[in-house]
Amino acid sequence: MTKIYVLDTNVLLQDPYSIFSFEDNEVVIPAVVLEEVDSKKRNMDEIGRNARQVSRLIDGLRQNGKLHEKIPLENGGALRIELNHRSFHQLQDIFVEKTNDNRILAVAKNLSLEEETKLEGRRVILVSKDTLVRVKADAIGLYSEDFLSDRVVENDHIYTGVLEQFVDITLLNTFYEKKEIPASEFPNMTLYPNQFLIMKDTLGSSSSAIGMVDQTGKIIRKLVFDHDHIWGIRSRNVHQTMAIELLLRKDISLVTLIGKAGTGKTLLALASGLMQTEDYGDYKKLLVARPIVPVGKDIGFLPGEKQEKLRPWMQPIYDNLEYLFNVKKPGELDAILAGMGSIEVEALTYIRGRSIPDQFIIIDEAQNLTKHEVKTILTRVGERSKIVLMGDPEQIDHPYLDAYNNGLTYVVEKFKNETISGHVKLFKGERSGLAQLAADLL
């Protein structure tokens, strides 16, 4: 039996094409949702773009019939703008205020009560990404669901870029001797290009080795880079060693790094970028950017020129640069950067329309990017450039993103089969004992 899905505003603002995600069921959009979408369409951000896209989609569907009478969709379902079930009578004793959320709940509840009077009444389900709206729906006896079709992965099994396997000591000895082994030695494992493999002795000895699947997926080779340090930074754990391998490989154009706060993502990327830009001359410029998404309440407009406005947002980048340059005095870093001229710290706000060739590009806090924004960034990358996307999917400040549908996770999953990309998840925090404990406990 088909169902009726009532959509909350946040579902449409997250994915304008969500109306086509419910197969042959009926999709109902309350009139109040259209009002909320209309109030967002002038926003000059991703939400505003999606609001405008929703408006265009629904306007285009008007050609198929009258929206308030139900029109067919290409996937076999139907769409209807609900005007007749907005009465607040059923909920007025429960929710006193007629907020937009409560009006959407009223539409769903009235539809549900109507279906219950029919012989073969359909189930009415409210779809919302707002947790409290789903809680309210449950409280008044409504079925409710989160919108999950925008998720890249269905659970927490996000690709880590690393596998561990116990092997016979003779295979380890062969790997040490020949510096490679065929991937056919692991017939029951799914291996991706540029994936890392930690091999440990089955008998429990201390013998182990790190291999990397080549771009054909047929051979596991020894790591190319085994540096003692990069720009004064030494690897402190095996996953940092893997990250350095990806960051220094010229045949890998896209690197994604995921890890908790303090695992060294930004520091390793900056050190690698500085070494390849300043020491090796592989790239003409080091470009560092991050999205402008506040944690908590926004502090509002900032005074000064562009660089002065950006300084508070970019301060985490400058903190790492001060450490790498061993800055001792205030203002010394600005003088160093001005003298070098090859390091650019920028906000992602200004990246649209650019073409960026011959540069080492670092995008920090990429978990706060939407799928559309991360596509915009990657399509800016020019010839002979390398881009590094990094962040922690568990620390998201964007209102409509989570660990499973953000732009960083999207890139990790979509590019894991590609030969020009590499990924590794960093697990161990190296900032300090306190920082690691806080990341684990809090």
TrEMBL record:
<dbReference type="InterPro" id="IPR051451">
    <property type="entry name" value="PhoH2-like"/>
</dbReference>
<dbReference type="GO" id="GO:0005829">
    <property type="term" value="C:cytosol"/>
</dbReference>
<dbReference type="InterPro" id="IPR003714">
    <property type="entry name" value="PhoH"/>
</dbReference>
<dbReference type="InterPro" id="IPR002716">
    <property type="entry name" value="PIN_dom"/>
</dbReference>
<dbReference type="InterPro" id="IPR029060">
    <property type="entry name" value="PIN-like_dom_sf"/>
</dbReference>
<dbReference type="InterPro" id="IPR027417">
    <property type="entry name" value="P-loop_NTPase"/>
</dbReference>
<dbReference type="Pfam" id="PF02562">
    <property type="entry name" value="PhoH"/>
</dbReference>
<protein>
    <submittedName>
        <fullName>PhoH family protein</fullName>
    </submittedName>
</protein>
<feature type="domain" description="PIN">
    <location>
        <begin position="3"/>
        <end position="135"/>
    </location>
</feature>
<keyword id="KW-0067">ATP-binding</keyword>
<dbReference type="GO" id="GO:0005524">
    <property type="term" value="F:ATP binding"/>
</dbReference>
<comment type="similarity">
    <text>In the N-terminal section; belongs to the PINc/VapC protein family.</text>
</comment>
<dbReference type="Pfam" id="PF13638">
    <property type="entry name" value="PIN_4"/>
</dbReference>
<keyword id="KW-0547">Nucleotide-binding</keyword>
